[in-house]
Description:
- By secondary structure, the protein is of the alpha/beta class.
- It is about 15% helix and about 30% strand.
- The radius of gyration is 27 Å and the shape is globular.
- The model is unreliable at about 1-65, about 160-165 and about 690-753 (pLDDT under 50).
Amino acid sequence: MKTPVCLQGPAVRAAATHQSTGRPGGSLCCRRLALVWVLACGCLQGGDARPAAAVRGLGSDTVDLGTTPDLDQLRLSPTRDRQSRLLRAAMASPGALPARARHIEDRFRQAQDSPGALLRAAADLGAIPGVDRSWSAPAPMLPGGTDTLADALALLSVDTAGRGAGPPPAGATVPPDATLPEPLRGEIARMLLGIHAAEQLRRTALAGMPAALTPSALLGQFPDGSAVPTGIPAALDLRRLLSRLDRPALLQGMAVLAQAAARLSGHLQAAPALPRVYWRHETPLGTVLVDTTGTGSAHVLDSPLLVLDVGGDDRYTFEVRRDGNRIAVLIDHGGDDLYAAAGPGTDPSAGILGYGILWDSEGSDGYRGGSFAQGAAVFGAALHIDQAGRDRYTATAYAQGFAVAGWAVLRSSSDATRFDAVSQSQASAGPEGTAVLLDAGGDDRYTLSGTPLLFPSAQLPDRNVSLGQGAGRGQRPDASAGGVSTTGGTGLLLDAAGDDHYSAHVFAQGVGYHEGTGMLLDGGGHDTFEAAWYAMGAAAHNAAGLLVKRGDGDDRYAASHSAALGAAHDFSVAVFVDQGGDDYYRVGDFGIGAALDNSVAFFVDGRGADHYALGPGACRGFGYAALADPDPLRSTLAGAGFFVDRAGRDVYPRQCPARNGAAWTSPPEGDTAASAAARGIGHDCPDAHCGRGDAAARTRLSPIHPRLSRPGWLPHKCGGEITSAIFRHDKIHSSALCRSTRTIGFLASRHEY
């Protein structure tokens, strides 16, 4: 793609302007539009509209810019048929990403009390066009016998190959009606029928997998903190098996299971009284345990299939799960409970080649696990729901909302909650996975620890790679897998409210890596964000990262090293938005609206008196773009960094051009040695109004696809350079900027926050 005129050097831009207007420099196509406040970039070439990126404003409006990363990088990727719809949209229209995030946030908020709706929202979030077909979740039909519970158990009494139903195992007993009466008896039967239906769909979904691919063989392919797996047989390599998974069938099975679990949980919570029952039953698929005695129990479970406990402060210990135990549902109603997973994947909310649901409706609970726990899915689906209480989650890795080739949702309560892990947790999505951590409110703490050092990062070997708190990653071509690469997943951490604390190290807090998409959306409060490298709206290698902080909270953002706060590298997109408050920002080097190697990065801060700090040395931020190693190809492709601060008396580092009430470019105007492919722009708006626009000019432009080229996309046709404008809602400040060739232009659209 040829570099747009407006992103080339000053001499080229001036020549283009002179050619189209007959005047050297000057303002061009500067329109007074009643749109959102934003500093935007657009460009025309030869009279054609060639917008190359998009940026969003604040509040409820948006503006599209004209610079995207080179989309051919995605189109020519060997994983092009497996990329998520959200990734493609983010790369094609970066400025619309916060608007999409608003819709995503609204949908998950509305769905938070319905497991089925949460699952569908997660499925749509990470949908792969052409792969994820439509699906539904019909309710399982009750058998026509006189005892629905006995009939349901008979359906489950099948061998692991699924060769038909049979009688219950020898020695098994079905409680009489007097011991387990209706309606609870029928509700348990419906749950078991849902499990049976889900098992049939699970087998359909995994029919293309080799028989030797057991849960242990699959989990053995993940580093455990002590060694990186080697010698994985090609036939079992999960990277080669992604396309053989029937994703719609897998989703449908989980939807059936979630629907049945929701019905049973609803019955337990609504029933005025329940019979006191303790019943344990073994099936080929796992253990059925019903305990409604209301006493605190110590449950030691091997291969749980269905566990139902009502009342009491319980302690659960989950031991090794047999390979045949691919479905687990645990519903606990009442009590302050402790859940401990003894080994990887033993937690019932782990869906490894299957499904897992853990649902706790009351009490302040503790969850302890090593790896693959607390909402983890690998070639499967997982739901972990905690509806109330001050809870504590502790894990090592691959937990608290983790997914590869599947879907994992952890939904936490509105009370103060603490999440502790080391790596790849807290909304961490690997190849073709969708991982969501949804917290309904409260003053929460999210920690991805640097100790013990189990997963050293390439950037900082003395620190763990975090890859969490809203992270999506793929895998770049690896010689050990014959050059096989994978597209990335989609990770979303959504915290609705509260004064929260986020702490991580490398790759975290709304970060994307290699065709992955990561988002952290925080709904309000006075929050603290701490990390080291690639964090707080960052991305690398054809990826997208977003952090949106809503409300007027006084927030603190500190990245000790590099690539944070709207920082993109290597054909990537990174967006950071903070709507308001007196905020503190610090990054060691490179960030706060910085783009490297043909990327696009945006940093937008709303009202408030803010303090910005940057480490010593050159100023690589505040609307910065560059090429690390220019080559003939990259030098023909665009990259751009944008910085906007709306109002308030701010403090900027002395070595940077950023100043209150000023606009600037990077490289500075007149730098003829600067690369034509990398341009940055920044603006500090001196007040909340940014000027006013007249009512007669209140017009909206239709959205324009960033790759579309056609004349006349503005109210009148023009060529050459389009100068910049700054908008906020129906107010506009343009007089100074529209007369300056230091700025780059605008392209507006309808997208809404």
